[in-house]
Amino acid sequence: EVQLVESGGGLVQPGGSLRLSCAASGFTFNSFWMSWVRQAPGEGLEWVALIKYDGVERYYVDSVKGRFTITRDNAKNSLNLQLNSLTAEDTAVYYCATYVHRASDSWGQGTLVTVSS
Amino acid sequence: DIQMTQSPSSVSASVGDRVTITCRASQGISTWLAWYQQKPGKAPKLLIYSASNLQSGVPSRFSGSGSGTDFTLTISSLQPEDFATYYCQQGNILPLTFGGGTKVEIK
Q1: How does strand B53-54 pair with strand B45-49?
Q2: What's the gap in Å between the CA of A105 and the closest CA on chain B?
Q3: How close does chain B come to A4, measured CA to CA in Å?
Q4: A22-76 pLDDT, tens per residue?
């Protein structure tokens, strides 16, 4: 059974940084593209970042380019998202998900990031 | 970026009703369209990928159709567990973009 467990969320001040992690199990992690999707409180879904199975290709939504970095450690079955220069607009639940057939297939439970002074 | 427009934004329906949700892309996306279901406080769940392919484990009362710019999600006979918010998402061109959501409520 696919399991994705996010961690690392919390309260951070504007301009601060946070590192999110996603522990993967139950599938061959190094064969799958992975993505991060976020959802602001009471709002819809927004794709954030995508990484190829080998980590070579990475893609971001424009609003986070230069501030967020997606990485993966295939030896540890781990996906990460480094969030820098955070603003209130980054407040959201962040989900990691497998990316198959150009869709987010399996999802974690999410981790909440709150940016506030 | 490709804009995804869902309609209606909400629908009230009864158990047993047939419900249809539409999603329109601002430009052609072939069949790179996915549908998700989300219940309050939970992660989204993939229902349909590539416009019409049912994800494993999803009940057959859910179906998807369309290509190009116009797509449809149909629930043939609404069940109590189907009351939720539904999102479409295009996968043709990055950035991946989602529709605004359709909330299916109890009538």
Answers
A1: antiparallel
A2: 6
A3: 11
A4: 999 999 999 999 999 999 999 999 999 999 999 999 999 999 999 999 999 999 9
